[in-house]
Specification:
Keywords (chain A): Membrane, Transmembrane, Transmembrane helix
Shape of chain A: extended
Number of strands of chain A: 10
Family (chain A): Belongs to the CDC50/LEM3 family.
Helix content of chain B: 40-55%
Protein name (chain A): Cell cycle control protein
Order of helices and strands of chain A: HHEHEEEHHHHEEHHHEEEEH
Oligomer: heterodimer
Subcellular location (chain A): Membrane
Strand content of chain B: 15-25%
Radius of gyration of chain A: 30 Å
Distance between the termini of chain A: 59 Å
Organism (chain A): Poecilia mexicana
Number of domains of chain A: 2
Largest sheet of chain A: 4 strands, antiparallel
Number of helices of chain B: 42
Number of domains of chain B: 5
Largest interface: A-B, 97 and 96 residues
Number of helices of chain A: 11
């Protein structure tokens, strides 16, 4: 008897809310009476945010200079086909104060930094300063692993090899005198890239670490000479190098070149005439690319981007419109819940 | 007899005799001079139910897993990734595949280990074997064919045994076969008569005999064999052996101290082991649409890859794009032929987009089915106190099919009705007898009532014969209470101390009914049946032959010899099988009465007898023995013999037994009707009885117009005319009523004979097309159909007919008996009732429920839930993978078709495995769009999901379009945001991985919130899992990007996520993009709900009002 009872109790299912599918539950319905006010609220909020964003974005100043030199009138036209060192300069004027801090970008178009093979063509271990990979770089870097004499290249790979090498100087014409605007090359790369992800080998002087290796074929000077004035901006942790190594997402992109933070220009670039002198090295003609320089200041929401503000306004208004449509539909097809 | 025996052996020798086996009892060779047998090797008694061994587990299991098309697909993708240079590392598809394969292997391995353990415990359980005149204890698996085994009470037989002798004097033993077929009644088995007397080990061991029997076959109830007993210098004696001599492995000895028996089938050759074979797999409609969707997605995948490959080469036509100066190819690549390059690119694109068909979908679907099925077994409402059992799930593959049922085919007896028979009345020679005993508890009153009615002497003779016939013509056993000793038993037999057991409840009801009318069947002793008649005298009849019942003949007979030396044959059976064999008696009166009883819904049996002369008896005896001795075609020859013997009866009368309707049967059928399910009753019963049950169970209502398609009618008109006339009637009605279907409904009654005529492809009417189509057309318009006089196979035929009709409706068959197994196996969903007629139906079914009434909850609640759950699961899975992969496709247009992945490897791998898998799994386990009570109260909600409505192509298209829309929003939203601008207030720029991570974050949030929008039933688990999985994504991303992972050879994600979060516009755009992606779906939902609400949506609102009302009153 006892046994039977046990058997029965083991057969009997547990009477818990879970097993009987009777857990207490909140059962919201997406009904018009909830959704319409919700839409109005969301719409209002979005329009508000959108307007704020749009105004902020409009206030941002932007100065864009195309220096590719496609046009024969362009001062840089001569450098377009010139393979040797070539400098050209462009002038432009700023009508009102360009509020600081001003950021100096260079931009490339039609340049596929996001190609898969191109992007993978680097050796992270090398860049982390691991000497073992100096002499035998990863095959990911092919065909930029070794030079024609079979010497290993450091830093290897297409990405490093194609590093942007135009340089710029910006001068302000003050009373007819060219005054060079100091450009700050610090803090243009991600802090983590500079401090953690990329490292120089711990050998001083740095040059010794690169014994038996070659510079990338396109480079005019080896990596340990990128910035000879500052050890903390040389080698793999050179900020220009780091900026270049962070691949752009899209074929038309901008990269930060310098910041203008110097005392005289901390408040911004005063109105006036400026000259941009370009050391024109980087070839973009073959793939119909464009090169440009962009001066921009930023707000709390970053650079100039009307899209976000407009999108917010559009979506917000759509919400409001849809809530009106729903209200009409709801009034016409009175359904269920009106009391 | 011996002549035929020799002939048979001779033939056997010529044919090499592979159809039978010869067993030497106790391994003793037959005496020299006996026929040469071909020695055969028999397996030992080891039971192996496990699939794998330690050694072959890995290869065999892997082989079986990769035979599945999905696994194979992922294996191919994985191999492609290994071989060629592809955008993503092999880990991305290898890891999930490895995970899935490992989990499955562990599960299967564990199950197999359990089986090994179970096998082991069975194989090592002790068995007593007689060797050298002693009982020796050994292990079960060491048993061999020919061993003599001793089995004690309550022990289980270790293999299939031929019963030699028993501790009981009459050479019988009782056995329960509960574990075999679930019948709990005790069955009697008989020892071989010649060996019955052997009581001790010594005697048994001295036996010198061989057994010839057929090779093992799975039918539990069939066995033919013969035993040859050799005695010193005598001709061998041979006896036939039948199923009554064969004790099956798995059965348990009861009420018998011990028995001796010899092993004939061992190990995997036992009937129990042969019955392990699994059924064919059924696939649900959802699975079929899932596979169709999969093919569509495979096409999308391939076309995406083709488009991208073609565009890539078109785009690369100009050399500066093909190989710009900053990105040269290696020498190897340059030399490769362009066709090979294109093909490699195609494969690379395939690999890049392969996540659109996620490996995890299969795992999730399987887990959902497996875990979800527990809710059925856990359901307390489907627990039956009496049986002490709840519902059982034998296949979880069909859960959702329960929500799609359009036709229910139900058995009548035991399913609609209780199969709890009660004797109501009998009609002897035109006079009616009703036992009153139940009312006042006095047997006498019943007896006196008989006297009051009847007086004529001829009538009395018939009446006596009738009652004796019912007392003798049955296979009922008397089970005595064990505590009662012999003397007491003698006095109280037939009183509360004993009760009747039989495999057929009708028989018990009849014998008990007789007892109430004063004739008590006492027992069968030494082949004498004893009856206590109403004058308290014991009458003894020698039982000579039992002509067992079978469902083809639909009758049974016994031949007895009375004390006075008369040979009598009593027969009882269905009226249709008795009346043609009756030569005299008041046929008309009895027939009328039988019909009247049948209309009342009672089960009727007719009783007849025949007096046999000595010579007639000898002749009958000869036929029977010859047939029983036959080793081959015994069934057929027995049937022939029965046919010859059972004739020229004198009709005695008829009995009526009531089979009450199952509890809530009518309510269940009504609900099923309201749910739009057509209910068909398929029964072997006669039309009137079945029709009465149908009325009682509300299958037919008063308003139902009955269309008859029976033999009676087709006798008058040709089948052709009847069919066309019915069709016209139905069509006319439909054209009048138009769309409003419920103004008049039709019920069709068809019988087995007509059905086979309809189904028979006939030549004459080939011009008129097929009857089948017309019949189906009629059926389509009938809300209820009753098929009576059906043979088991015909039941399956009907199911098949409907299944293969042009709408391909989903069918469900429910039944409780062995005769329903064929239709249970045939139907899309087979449901077994754990009823009185054994467990065969339940064992062969996909789901087993204790009572018919549980079908309501099974279909309307569980089926409905499972369907909406899995439908959402399937659609959502495809949706979220479109959202996932389509941006990657779009990205190719902006990265020079270079197969650059948009997302990081970890994201690609984990998206389906962990970021988005749990919420949908949980949704598919616990979602309830309406409450259980509403579903039960409003069966019509079932119509909302009929015809696979949530998985039809328009719905699928909607989900896919929504996915594409969302993907476009994600991608171009991020694109315009990234368009030449900076995100940060320090002026720094973001790279491609931030771009991908931004899209991925929006993606994960959108698809999770989309599910949240679809969730109607928010339990704490839902909250936990949905918010938890979003939180998990964030934490994972923080961790993944927060550490330099030493085992990775790239650190591209380092700080990407955190940098993104530190930027205001990123937050704003994430919010914007999520909102925009979700908006259309919300608007669609609200508008659909307002403009054309489904019944389900109306019910949801009503439910809410009910609640509000309640609150109002409570306040």
């Amino acid at each position: 008897m006892v046994k039977e009872e046990q058997e029965e109790s083991s057969n009997r299912p547990d009477n818990t809310a879970f097993t009987q599918q009777r857990l207490p539950a909140w059962q919201p319905i997406l009904s018009a009476s909830i959704v319409i006010p919700m839409f109005v609220l969301i719409g209002a909020a979005f329009i508000g945010v959108g307007v704020a964003l749009f105004i902020t974005s409009r206030d941002i100043q932007l100065q864009e200079l195309d220096y590719t030199g496609d046009d024969s009138e362009h001062p840089c036209f001569k450098c377009r086909t010139n393979t040797e060192k070539c400098t050209c300069s462009m002038t432009f004027s700023i009508p009102t104060l360009f509020k600081g801090p001003v950021f100096f970008y260079y931009g490339l178009t039609n340049y596929f930094q996001n190609q898969r093979k191109y992007g993978a063509s680097k050796d992270d271990n090398q860049l982390y300063g691991d000497l073992n990979y100096f002499t035998s770089p990863s095959t990911d870097c092919d065909p930029y692993t070794r030079d024609s004499k079979n010497m290993p290249i450091v830093p290897c790979g297409a990405l490093a090899n194609s590093m942007f090498n135009d340089t710029f100087t910006l001068s302000h014409t003050v009373n007819g005198v060219q005054k060079i605007v100091p450009l700050d090359g610090k803090g243009i790369a991600w802090w983590t890239d500079y401090n953690i992800k990329y490292r120089n080998p711990s050998i001083t002087p740095l040059i010794n670490a690169f014994n038996g290796t070659k510079k990338p074929t396109n480079w005019p000077k080896p990596i340990y000479e990128l910035d000879t004035t500052d050890v903390y901006n040389n080698g793999f942790i050179n900020q220009d190098f780091l900026v270049w190594m962070r691949r752009a997402a899209l074929p038309d992109f901008r990269k930060l070149y310098r910041r203008i933070t110097h005392d005289d220009y901390a408040a911004g670039l005063p109105a006036g005439n400026y000259t941009l002198t370009i050391a024109y090295n980087y070839p973009v003609h073959s793939f119909n690319g464009k090169k440009k320089v962009v001066l921009s200041n930023v707000s709390w929401m970053g650079g100039k981007n009307d899209f976000l503000g407009i999108a917010y306004i559009v979506v917000g208004s759509m919400c409001v419109v849809m809530s009106i449509v729903m209200l009409i539909v709801y009034a016409r097809f009175k359904f269920g819940e009106d009391d | 007899m011996s002549c035929s025996f020799i002939c048979f052996l001779g033939c056997a020798g010529e044919e090499n005799w592979v159809d039978s086996r010869t067993v030497y009892i106790g391994h003793k060779e037959p005496p020299a001079g006996a026929e040469a047998y071909i020695p055969q090797r028999y397996p030992n008694n080891r039971i192996v139910s496990s699939k794998y061994t330690f050694w072959n587990f890995i290869p065999k299991n892997l082989f079986e897993q990769f035979r599945r098309i999905a696994n194979f697909y992922f294996l191919v993708i994985f191999l492609v990734q290994l071989i060629i240079d592809t955008p993503t590392s092999p880990v991305t598809s290898g890891l999930p595949l490895f995970f899935v394969i490992t989990v499955t292997a562990i599960k299967q391995g564990y199950e197999d280990w359990l089986r090994h353990k179970a096998d082991c415990s069975i194989n090592e359980c002790p068995v007593d074997v007689v060797q050298q005149e002693k009982v020796v204890r050994t292990q079960s698996h060491k048993l061999r064919v020919g061993d003599i085994v001793m089995v004690r009470e309550d022990e289980t037989f270790p293999c299939d045994l031929i019963f030699l002798s028993s501790s009981r004097d009459d050479g019988t033993c009782y056995v329960t076969t509960t574990s075999l077929d679930g019948e709990s009644s005790h069955k009697t088995y008989y020892a071989v008569p010649d060996t019955m007397a052997f009581k001790t080990e010594q005697e048994v061991d001295s036996l010198h005999a061989t057994i010839e029997c057929e090779q093992p076959q799975p039918d539990l109830y069939k066995f033919v064999g013969r035993i040859n007993i050799y005695k010193d210098k005598e001709e061998p004696v041979s006896r036939t052996l039948g199923a009554e001599n064969l004790l099956l492995r798995g059965a348990t000895l009861k009420n018998t101290q011990h028995i001796y028996a010899v092993a004939v089938y061992t190990g995997m050759e036992t009937k129990m082991a042969l019955n392990y074979q699994s059924k064919s797999q059924k696939r649900s409609a959802v699975e079929k649409s899932m596979n169709a969707f999969l093919v569509v997605y495979l096409c999308i995948l391939i076309s995406k890859a083709v488009i991208n490959t073609v565009l890539k080469y078109a785009w690369q036509w100009s050399p500066d794009r093909d190989e710009p100066w900053y990105n040269h190819r290696t020498e190897n690549e340059r030399q490769r032929h362009v066709v090979i390059r294109a093909f490699t690119d195609f494969l690379a694109f395939m690999v890049l987009f392969n996540y659109i068909i996620p490996v995890s979908m299969y795992v999730t679907v399987e887990m959902q089915k497996f875990l979800g099925s527990y809710f059925i077994t856990w359901d307390e409402e489907m627990f039956d106190e009496e049986l002490g059992q709840g519902a059982q799930v034998n296949t979880s593959d069909l859960n959702e099919e329960l929500g799609q049922v359009e036709y229910v085919f139900t058995d009548k007896t035991g399913t609609l009705t209780e199969n709890n028979m009660e004797f109501i009345e009998c009609c002897v020679d035109g006079n009616v007898y009703i036992p009153h005993a139940i009312c006042n508890g006095q047997i006498l009153s019943a007896a006196s009532s008989i006297d009051m009615i009847d007086s004529s002497p001829g009538g009395k003779r018939i009446r006596d014969l009738f009652f004796r016939a019912l007392c003798l013509c049955h296979t009922v056993q008397v089970k005595e209470e064990e505590t009662v000793d012999g003397i007491k038993r003698g006095i109280h037999q037939g009183r509360p101390t004993s009760f009747y057991i039989s495999s057929s409840p009708d028989e018990v009801a009849l014998v008990e009914g007789m007892k109430r009318l004063g004739y008590t069947y006492l027992r069968l002793k030494d082949n004498y049946m004893e009856i206590l008649n109403k004058d308290d005298e014991i009458e003894r009849f020698e039982l000579l032959h039992v002509l067992n019942f079978d469902s083809v003949r639909r009758r049974m007979s016994v031949i007895v010899k009375s004390i006075s030396g008369e040979y009598l044959m009593f027969c009882k059976g269905a009226d249709s099988s008795i009346f043609p064999r009756v030569v005299s008696g008041k046929v008309e009166q009895v027939k009328a009465h039988v019909e009247q009883n049948a209309v009342e819904g009672l089960r009727t049996l007719c009783v007849a007898y025949r007096r046999l002369s000595e010579s007639e008896y000898q002749e009958a005896c000869h036929y029977l023995t010859e047939a029983k001795l036959a080793l081959q075609d015994r069934e057929q020859r027995l049937a022939q013999a029965y046919d010859v013997i059972e004739r020229d009866f004198v009709l005695l009368g008829a009995t009526a037994v009531e089979d009450r309707l199952q509890e809530k049967a009518a309510d269940t059928i009504e609900s099923l009707h309201k749910a739009g399910i057509k209910v068909w009753v398929l029964t072997g019963d006669k039309m009137e009885t079945a029709a009465a049950t149908c009325y009682a169970s509300k299958l037919f209502r008063r308003s139902t117009q009955i269309l008859e398609l029976t033999k009676k009618r087709t006798k008058e008109q040709s089948l052709h005319d009847v069919l066309f006339e019915l069709n016209r009637t139905v069509l006319r009605q439909r054209s009048i009523s138009g769309d409003g279907m419920d103004c008049l409904d039709f019920g069709l009654i068809i019988d087995g004979a007509t059905l086979s005529a309809v189904l028979k492809p006939s030549q004459e009417v080939s011009g008129h097309g097929n009857y089948r189509e017309i019949f189906l057309e009629i059926c389509r318009n009938c809300s209820a159909v009753l098929c009576c006089r059906m043979a088991p196979l015909q039941k399956a035929q009907i199911v098949k007919l409907i299944k293969s009709s042009k709408e391909h409706p989903i069918t469900l068959a429910v039944g409780d008996g062995a005769n329903d197994v064929s239709m249970i196996l045939e139907a899309h969903v087979g449901i077994g009732i754990m009823g009185k007629e054994g467990r065969q139906a339940a064992r062969n079914s996909d789901y087993a429920i204790p009572k018919f009434k549980h079908l309501k909850k099974m279909l309307l609640v569980h089926g409905h839930y499972y369907y909406i759950r899995i439908a959402e699961l399937v659609q959502y899975f495809f949706y979220k993978n479109v959202c996932f992969i389509f941006p990657q496709f779009l990205y190719q247009f902006f990265c020079g078709f270079s197969q650059q992945p948009l997302y990081d490897t970890a994201y690609l791998t984990l998206y389906n495995i962990s970021f988005t898998s749990l919420p949908i799994l949980l949704y598919s386990l616990v979602e309830q769009h309406v409450t259980i009570d509403t579903l039960k109260r409003e069966p019509s909600l079932y119509r909302d999901i009929a015809k696979n409505s949530l998985l039809r192509w328009p719905v699928f298209l909607y989900w896919t379009c929504l996915g594409v829309f969302d993907a476009v929003i994600f991608f171009f939203g991020a694109y315009f945001l990234f368009d030449n601008t900076t995100f940060t207030s320090n002026g720094q720029m973001f790279g491609n991985w931030t771009f991908g991570t931004l899209i991925f974050t929006v993606l994960v949030f959108t698809v999770t919130l989309k599910l949240a929008l679809d969730t109607r039933h928010w339990t704490w688990i839902n909250h936990f899992v949905i918010w938890g999985s979003l939180l998990f994504y964030v934490i994972f991303s923080l961790l993944w990007g927060g550490i330099i992972w030493p085992f990775l050879n790239y650190q591209r994600m380092y700080y990407v996520f955190m940098q993104m979060l530190s930027s205001g516009p990123a937050w704003l755009s994430i919010i914007l993009l999520i909102t925009v992606s979700l908006l259309p779906d919300v608007i669609k939902k609200v508008l659909c709900r307002a403009i054309c609400p489904t019944a389900t949506e109306r019910a949801q609102v009503r439910k809410r009002f009910l609640k509000i009302d309640l609150k109002f009153y409570l306040c």
